Structure formats: structure tokens, C-alpha cells
Amino acid sequence: MSIDFLKRVMLFVAFVLAQALVLGRIHLFHCATPLLYVYFVTLFPRNYPKWGVLTWAFVMGVTIDIFTNTPGLAAASLTAIAAIQPYFFALFVPRDAAETLEPSLLNLGPTKYSYYIVTLVTIYCLLFFTLEMFSFDNLLEWLMSVVGSILVTLALIITFEIAKRRV
Fold this sequence. Notes:
Blueprint: H1 3-21, H2 38-42, H3 50-68, H4 73-90, H5 105-108, H6 110-133, H7 139-166
Helix pairs in contact: 1-3, 3-4, 4-6, 6-7
């Protein structure tokens, strides 16, 4: 087994446990839920196989769905994000950059990383909450859930990036 695979397994377990035991029970103002496990999908390096990203995302989504009782929502949304992540990451990386370059605040810089992470988290939250409500009858509740969850998730991801940078 490679070190990279073991690192990914440990991150997988940490994100699933954090979401299932702590973050999944937080609903700020009854609408904003931190969805930190999206961060896992955004961490895959440039040269990682696309089928590997899709597999990891689907398995994480199913695991999150099992623990949080959201049948298929996380799996569908994470798999969609995993499908676009390699192509989207390529937009922010120079062609001559290292093949093992991982997306991070340090590697991409604050502006490019912000565009990268904000876009992926926004797409994820839009998909997740649209599938959850499955209608736009209560548009205000849907909008509050999407915007609140985006803000809380982004705050957590940026906090982790800054902490990772200092270590």
C-alpha cells in the first residue's frame, strides 16, 4: 500500500466521523449545515486518475448518506463534483506545473484557490439542497439553506487551509 492511499483512507475516515458525529447535527438558524466532507473531493492532485476521484467521492457520499439518513443525496452531489473537479482544477493550474500539484491555498494562491473552492462548494450545495427539497415551492427556505451552508462550509475549509499552511 502506498502512503498516498493510507493518507486518503485516514482523511476519509476523519471527514466521515466529523460529519456523522458532529457537523451533521449542527443546523445554524435551522438552515445552515456545515458540509465539510466536500473538502475531501477538492483535495485530489492534478495527476490522480479520474475514475479514482469518482470512486472515492461515490463511496464517501454513500457512507455519509448511511450515517446522516439522506438517501442518495450526498452520493449524487459528491459524484457530480468529482466528475468536474479534475477539469475545473486544470483551469487554475499552469500547463508546466508539476503533475503531483495538489489544490491548496499555498499552491494556487488566495485568488485562484478562492475561485476554485467557492465554485465547487456552491455547485455542491445547489445540487444537494435541490435534490433534498425536490421542488421550489419554498424558495426562500431553499435559498437560505444553500447560502447558509455555502458560507459555513467555506469558513471551515478556509480555516483548515490556514491551519494546514501554518503546520
